[in-house]
Amino acid sequence: AEEQTATGTGTGYNVGPVSLETTLSGSTYQLKDPTRGNTYTVDMNNRRIGAGTLFTDADNSWGTGALTDRATLAVDAQYGVSETWDFYLSKFGRSGIAGDGTGSYNRVHYGNSYLNASWSDTCFCMTYGDGNGTTYGPFVTLDVAGHEMTHGVTSRTAGLTYSGESGGLNESYSDIMGTLVEFYSNNAKDTGDYLIGEKVVTSGTPLRWMDDPSKDGSSAKCWSSTVKNLDVHYSSGVGNHAFFLLAVGSGAHTVNGVAYNSPTCDSSTVTGIGNDDAGAIFYRALTTYMTSSTNYSAARTATLKAATDLFGASSTQYTATAAAWSAVSVS
Ligand code: ASN
Ligand code: ZN
Ligand code: CA
């Protein structure tokens, strides 16, 4: 059938009403975005195997916001890609996860009561669980979408090995960029915060806190020689904490109505430089200076080189980058 780009509307569970670029194929609309590398979304029909079924619709109006409509979570997933794509393009000039304009795809309604989301380099695709209907809601949120797709970006750039300190850095980059996607999107139902997964857990308790990662009871807020032995989702705390200090600063701050209190490991005071400059420094470090074996000490060096490139070695941004790493005990 002849295919053309169309603009539809959708209502997601977490993002509410949004606009979506779709494909009109013959007389049927497909949840496939020709303006973002033909990224599309399939329904896994609560199975863990098979290709799933491409979401299609007769009138280009997708989902109702209710979970009883299977397309509702497809809206959240498709919009999550849109926002992540647009974030990387507008902030860093990166076209898609691989940087070459290639789209990915989303698999929603994966398995039964599946409590996770993931990126796969093999299928170049995202997988989202529905949650369990009680303590965990669907894992299809803006910060999780940005987190998972950033695993794809990291894989195509520095290639940080997913264990030890490089694994913690890999996880931290996903939390940082996922958070910046949430801020970029400025969604009325999911405004930017420095919390990870706050829309996933139905109690509203985040999975992770960037201002003080130790608030989850497991994550490291300061570097030590044993950080490398932690699960990567806990050793990520060092990088998340450094990024928060660089973007926002130490001590008490309220952003978008959320109160934070970020300690330093050396009793220093750090003054933040904002999300845009901090994000630019971290992105340039990831894509220009980091390698598969970069550890926290090398991450400090990489971000300082990036800060020099972007702002100069005498800039407040350079000084703040050094101060943020020192404040999490990374020298
Ligand atoms: N959702 C998890 C993550 O992205 C999946 C994993 O353990 N890799 O970190
Ligand atoms: Zn991850
Ligand atoms: Ca968040």
Supply the CATH architecture of the largest domain: Orthogonal Bundle
H/E series: EEEEEEEEHEEEHHEEHEEHHH
**How many beta-strand segments?**
15
CATH topology of the largest domain: Neutral Protease, domain 2
Mean pLDDT: 98
Bound molecules: asparagine, zinc ion, calcium ion
Topology summary:
Elements: E1 3-11, E2 17-25, E3 28-30, E4 32-33, E5 39-43, E6 53-54, E7 56-57, E8 61-62, H1 71-92, E9 105-108, E10 117-120, E11 125-128, H2 142-156, H3 164-185, E12 195-196, E13 208-209, H4 232-247, E14 251-255, E15 258-262, H5 275-289, H6 296-311, H7 316-327
Parallel strand pairs: 1-8, 5-9, 9-11
Antiparallel strand pairs: 1-2, 2-3, 3-7, 4-5, 5-6, 10-11, 12-13, 14-15
The chain binds asparagine, zinc ion and calcium ion.
Description:
The protein is an alpha+beta fold and about 325 residues long. It folds into two domains: about 20-140, Elastase, domain 1 (Roll); about 165-325, Neutral Protease, domain 2. The chain is built from seven helices and 15 strands. It has helices at about 70-90, 140-155, 165-185, 230-245, 275-290, 295-310, 315-325, and strands at about 5-10, 15-25, 30, 30-35, 40-45, 55, 55, 60, 105-110, 115-120, 125-130, 195, 210, 250-255, 260. Strands 4, 5, 6, 9, 10 and 11 form a six-stranded mixed beta sheet that branches. It is globular, with a radius of gyration of 20 Å. The chain starts with a strand and ends with a helix. Calcium ion binds near residues 179, 182, 195 and 196.
